[in-house]
Give the backbone structure.
Amino acid sequence: DEAKPEQMVVSEVAELIHQRNKQWGIEPDYYVIDPSARNRATVNAEAVESAYLRSGIPTSHGQNDRAAGILEVKRRLQHAGLFVGDNCPALASEFRRYRKDPNSKDEFAAVKKDDHLLDALRYVVMERSWEVAEAPPPKRPNTDPMFEPPWRGVVKHDNPPMGAYS
């Protein structure tokens, strides 16, 4: 699910969050917020994170390491640990337009335009650990010298296999 509130004040965004929580039947302990929210002020000079807390939305600053976040999103997408559904068209659109900043030598520097949902996604995946399920070990042929494979009928060989009773 996604919400991309634009031109809304904190109290309106908080109400939207509460509505979505009710819709999904969840009540998180806290929400991940852009770390720069501590520096931004609302119209009355109150810090954005304080305004959210006053509206019943406790926040925690997201991990802002862009390289680590991009690699984590990539890892989850590659290992079926993250899906972007049809009900997230704005996020899917940001994915399609996301690109490296051609003027930067940093390989993870991106063009900072229309990427708010991707930033939020990076913060969330960095907040919630996820392990790739370990694949079962590959089946190896039995190396026991007394092993005889199951009977499969008569097979002609130039050199018949040595079975347990040969």
Observations:
- The longest strand covers residues 31-33.
